[in-house]
Amino acid sequence: MKIVAVLYPGGQAAKEQSAMLGCVENELGLREWLESKGHTYVVTDDKEPSDSELDKHLPDTDILITTPFHPAYMNGERLEKAKKLKLAITAGVGSDHYDLEHIHKHKPDLSVLEVTGSNVVSVAEHVLMSILVLIKNFVPAHAQITNGEWNVANVAMRTYDLEDKVVGTVGAGRIGFRVLQRLLPFQCKELVYFDYQSLAPEREKEVGAKRVESFDEFLSKCDIITINCPLYERTRGLFNEQALSKMKKGAYLVNTARGAIVDRDALVKAVNSGHIAGYAGDVWYPQPAPKDHPWRYMPNNGMTPHYSGTSLDAQKRYALGTKEILEAFFNDKPFRPEDVIVRAGAIASASYGEKK
Ligand code: NAI
């Protein structure tokens, strides 16, 4: 079989740094392991379509390994080129870089798996950091120091405490729940969540969170919102101009889920007007974020490149998980059910929309 792993432009450097898939290779000897079984293993880049190494390999690729951090955007056209593709593994969590609708309609032999749970703690910790960075006005305060300045009043005038605030998560799955757990000791006024799946009563009790069924009510009551749901047709642009306008004036928004859940230009407008007091997170569309992406330059942002889910600890977990998926596939053993996003063309995950 031919297994193709997509590293980002400069993938060799990534390997040397043991970053992302480099970790899969270096720590687990993926190449040696696959080649000893008689498979062909290729590491490639996904540069501009005009110069895409990946496109050259797609027609005879059996298994594709990608990451969400430098995603290879597998649109319908590319999926059609990949005539032999049977298994697509996301080394991490979030497979929205595949056109899942297209797979559902036209690729009945393709399964998409990810390493569920592998980096959820890493992201939950980043969410907490992002919330604090925003409400403590950390970025300009730190910039004062490196610029040789000292103006306490100037930064204190936009600084708040988390205690006594209403904080809500869109999505109370693995990351959302861990965010609520980590918020609990801060003694917020209220912790709420918006999700079509309810937490079990004992889980709700553990974190003292209430489910809000109306999205409008959720938007209007939160001082801080964190987004922790997958990107698919129902969540693409969920935070559009209308939704942002329904948020409390002066509220903060943190998004470590996917960039395209938030409307790029509507957000810039809302932050510039001050309606949204600050925005932080690490996800963009597209990735890597172009130099002129306006979220890089808007005021009161705590943006970083997409790295929350790829801490060195997380890399080990998703590298191991990737190898386990491959092992199950080669030995015709069942996959961990929670890893299966699409099984033979059909959406299998409960997190990509309510089943009617
Ligand atoms: P999960 O599957 O455990 O939880 C997702 C939750 O979102 C589920 O409870 C689901 O019911 C809910 N949901 C789905 N559609 C919704 C909607 N329309 N409105 C409200 N809730 C909705 O997933 P997990 O592990 O918590 O990850 C969530 C997302 O975070 C991933 O899909 C991925 O996009 C992103 N992520 C980002 C990472 C990063 O490095 N920044 C790393 C890992 C995940």
From TrEMBL:
<comment type="similarity">
    <text>Belongs to the D-isomer specific 2-hydroxyacid dehydrogenase family. FDH subfamily.</text>
</comment>
<dbReference type="InterPro" id="IPR029753">
    <property type="entry name" value="D-isomer_DH_CS"/>
</dbReference>
<feature type="binding site">
    <location>
        <position position="93"/>
    </location>
    <ligand>
        <name>substrate</name>
    </ligand>
</feature>
<dbReference type="GO" id="GO:0051287">
    <property type="term" value="F:NAD binding"/>
</dbReference>
<dbReference type="InterPro" id="IPR006139">
    <property type="entry name" value="D-isomer_2_OHA_DH_cat_dom"/>
</dbReference>
<feature type="binding site">
    <location>
        <position position="119"/>
    </location>
    <ligand>
        <name>substrate</name>
    </ligand>
</feature>
<feature type="binding site">
    <location>
        <begin position="230"/>
        <end position="234"/>
    </location>
    <ligand>
        <name>NAD(+)</name>
    </ligand>
</feature>
<feature type="binding site">
    <location>
        <position position="256"/>
    </location>
    <ligand>
        <name>NAD(+)</name>
    </ligand>
</feature>
<feature type="site" description="Important for catalytic activity">
    <location>
        <position position="258"/>
    </location>
</feature>
<dbReference type="Pfam" id="PF00389">
    <property type="entry name" value="2-Hacid_dh"/>
</dbReference>
<dbReference type="InterPro" id="IPR036291">
    <property type="entry name" value="NAD(P)-bd_dom_sf"/>
</dbReference>
<feature type="binding site">
    <location>
        <begin position="174"/>
        <end position="175"/>
    </location>
    <ligand>
        <name>NAD(+)</name>
    </ligand>
</feature>
<dbReference type="GO" id="GO:0016616">
    <property type="term" value="F:oxidoreductase activity, acting on the CH-OH group of donors, NAD or NADP as acceptor"/>
</dbReference>
<protein>
    <recommendedName>
        <fullName>Formate dehydrogenase</fullName>
        <ecNumber>1.17.1.9</ecNumber>
    </recommendedName>
</protein>
<dbReference type="InterPro" id="IPR006140">
    <property type="entry name" value="D-isomer_DH_NAD-bd"/>
</dbReference>
<dbReference type="InterPro" id="IPR033689">
    <property type="entry name" value="FDH_NAD-dep"/>
</dbReference>
<keyword id="KW-0963">Cytoplasm</keyword>
<keyword id="KW-0560">Oxidoreductase</keyword>
<feature type="binding site">
    <location>
        <position position="195"/>
    </location>
    <ligand>
        <name>NAD(+)</name>
    </ligand>
</feature>
<feature type="domain" description="D-isomer specific 2-hydroxyacid dehydrogenase catalytic">
    <location>
        <begin position="33"/>
        <end position="333"/>
    </location>
</feature>
<keyword id="KW-0520">NAD</keyword>
<feature type="binding site">
    <location>
        <position position="282"/>
    </location>
    <ligand>
        <name>NAD(+)</name>
    </ligand>
</feature>
<dbReference type="GO" id="GO:0008863">
    <property type="term" value="F:formate dehydrogenase (NAD+) activity"/>
</dbReference>
<feature type="site" description="Important for catalytic activity">
    <location>
        <position position="306"/>
    </location>
</feature>
<comment type="function">
    <text>Catalyzes the NAD(+)-dependent oxidation of formate to carbon dioxide. Formate oxidation is the final step in the methanol oxidation pathway in methylotrophic microorganisms. Has a role in the detoxification of exogenous formate in non-methylotrophic organisms.</text>
</comment>
<dbReference type="InterPro" id="IPR029752">
    <property type="entry name" value="D-isomer_DH_CS1"/>
</dbReference>
<dbReference type="Pfam" id="PF02826">
    <property type="entry name" value="2-Hacid_dh_C"/>
</dbReference>
<dbReference type="GO" id="GO:0042183">
    <property type="term" value="P:formate catabolic process"/>
</dbReference>
<feature type="domain" description="D-isomer specific 2-hydroxyacid dehydrogenase NAD-binding">
    <location>
        <begin position="129"/>
        <end position="307"/>
    </location>
</feature>
<feature type="binding site">
    <location>
        <position position="351"/>
    </location>
    <ligand>
        <name>NAD(+)</name>
    </ligand>
</feature>
<feature type="binding site">
    <location>
        <begin position="306"/>
        <end position="309"/>
    </location>
    <ligand>
        <name>NAD(+)</name>
    </ligand>
</feature>
<comment type="subunit">
    <text>Homodimer.</text>
</comment>
<dbReference type="GO" id="GO:0005829">
    <property type="term" value="C:cytosol"/>
</dbReference>
